[in-house]
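new request in #modeling-help
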Amino acid sequence: MKPRMFAVAAALIGVSALALGAAEARPLKWASAGDALTIDPHGQNEGLTTTVNQQMYEALTERDHAGKLHPLLASSWKVLPDDPTTWEFKLQEGVKFHDGSPFTADDVVFSYERAMQPTSDFKGYLTSVEKVSKVDDLTVRIKTKGPNPLLVNNTSAIRIMSKAWAEKNNATKAQDFKNKEENFAVRNANGTGPFILVSRESDVKTVMKRNDNYWAKAKVPLEITELTYVPIKQDATRIAALLSGEVDLVQDVPVQDIARLKSQPKVRVTTGPENRTIFFGMDVASKDLKGDNVEGKNPFADKRVRQAMNMALNRGAIQRVVMRGESIPTGVILPPFANGWTKELDAAPATDVAKAKALLAEAGYPNGFSVTLHCPNDRYINDEGICQAAVGMFGQIGVKVNLVSQSKSIHFNLIQKNPPETEFYLVGWGVPTFDSDYVFSYMYHTRTGSQGSWNATGYSDKDVDAQIQSLSKEIDIAKRDAAIAKIWAKVKDETIYLPIHHQTLSYGMNSTLDVPVDVQNQPKLKMVSFKGS
Amino acid sequence: MLAYILRSLMQGLVVMIAVAFIAFSMFRFVGDPVVNMLGQEATLQDRAELTQRLGLNDPVPVQFARFIADAARGDFGISYRQGRKVSELILERLPATVELAVLSAVFAFVVGIAFGVYAAIRRDGWIANLVMSVSLIGVSLPTFLIGIGLIYIFAVELRWLPSFGRGDTVKIGWWSTGLLTVSGLKSLVLPVLTLGFLQLTLIMRLVRSEMLEVMRADFIRFARARGIPERRIEFRHALRNTMIPVITIAGLQLGGVIAFAIVTETVFQWPGLGALFVNAVQFVDVPVMSAYLLFVAFVFVLTSLLVDLVYVALDPRLRSGSAVPAK
């Protein structure tokens, strides 16, 4: 070795040693209100369950904290040039499961088939899939029933487990509540992810250790040596645990505590928009409302009434007073990072009580009317407070609202019943596929067996339905985007829903950390790095 | 005596079935579990299928009969929320609640009697007055606030004790105990104080007033006249006679403490049965809710039976005659 090269090599070693010294490795305790319901990767499609599972299990693709799609277990993908119904995924080489067995195409085929079983809670993402097949050890093809230009968006939700492991432990079926036996995968895990399960006591703690053989460790900091998740249900206790240093990261800081936490020197609070919009829905189709005082007519069926109510909502006041500044008022039920969102769509009408009253009078309700509003009180941030504020605002234009707020288990049932048992309700909607189609098919499409399951408004327009259906077949992205814009223009004008705001999340943490808010509220803890304190 | 126990047990069984039935007929007002069990993408068909699969379409009496038939065989089904056997979940959570409840009861009983006796004997002393005033706080402050207050002082400000959880536990067979580790013991302090405080003040006030009552009785006056030392009168004669009603109340309270540790368990994220139940209610986890309510009914039946038996043992008058307390 020549002296100069030696010097360079020495410098490099020195630099890497320095880097190693700077990168601190520490355990991390993280808390939020609920616990993961299961660690079966296909058992429960619920936010926190996915958050915990994805530290151990990985999908073909993943979304970063801003919602952008990146390759993960798949290194690349394409639609076959000669067959628009078939996607081909190339898999990462050299990936190993926690038990040391290699990751291959067989595991992908197995996991997708498991996720498509009737008892899986993730089958909704794969309804367009006809068949998943292996081409070679590192290539998988997914054949869809028709062309599906957005299939890859759904792959980030389907986590891959080891086929051999599942077969050995008799866990080849997703968790089933009818069986009286517990599924092995409910409390055991074997994924390819950055953390390995050490122990799990439901509602107490889930302990994971760093996967030192993690296949992608060169690409991520992976500084947490031991990751412990603890559920702490009570807001005050959770914040106390953060202040006392017993936990390092709190995923759900109540809005009333944000200001107090920000004033603490050893605590950092990060805030950011969540992939969820909060809005009111109303029955626009029934001949007569049961809960109103107008006989023989449905005031909501008149577009002018809906516009008047949209104008009566003072979104700024709700943001300031109810949300203490932590929300983003909006005029559309689509979060800003989803495909199809534009600034123009997001604009809400200015609050104008006089104009709203005039519109109501024009529609034949100069003295307003009364109606019942259903609201959850344990689902969204300050959901009940939003409703109470809105009741006052609707009152200003003469619409007397009788508020019924109750637990989510009752509230959502009213909306999902067929026919729905609510005529005016609050709901929030996130878009896991990050595309407008998801909102259209659940919120605007006519309620049929498989579509419009959350459309309790009764809104049904054949043209709109046809346009929505065409979206899932259109392969030309530009044409598709134009169709999306057209549908939005139509439904926004119809004012079927009254958008309120995009929900904002706040994470509280020890000031040595800086974890950005994840738009899906599923922080990826392999990305955490500690700053020397 | 045996006949009496058997009869009480039979009555207890009827009580339990009645509780189960009332609980069962109220569950549908809690909400629909299917909403929580399926993700937001679920279609109307998915919901209908799951409802059918869980047997939730059947009339309530049919569901109830099925539940009782299964329960009689010791099968409480599988939790909707966690996908695990309910009997296993309850056994797993039982130690946490029992340790918390028993320690709180012992704390309340011992300290309550000590302070009660002191307040009765030195009824005009300033310490007695202070204790009585503080006990007013215990009676009037909600458990929730006491718990949060203690967390704030001892966990956030002083950082002596943990604010949540059970600390490290040790397994002895299926029983997990927090009594054998330092962190387990430290974790017990605040929840025990919180849960025991209300009982403590109740017992203390009861002991004090009973004791004052007894001290005025004739036999105490005669004992004084005989020249028996005051200490002996207080602890031998007066306290013993005070204990009968106190034990009855304390015993019944123990059932309540085990059954309703819900608030304390929620504040301290204590992994016991109360916390399990609260989560079950929010999720409409019907199998867990029914099993828990049945368990609570059982605890009450059992403790009142035990109290009756202790009562007989303590009060010699009840042992003679029919041997059965006329209650």
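bot summary: The first strand of chain B starts at residue 170 and ends at 172.
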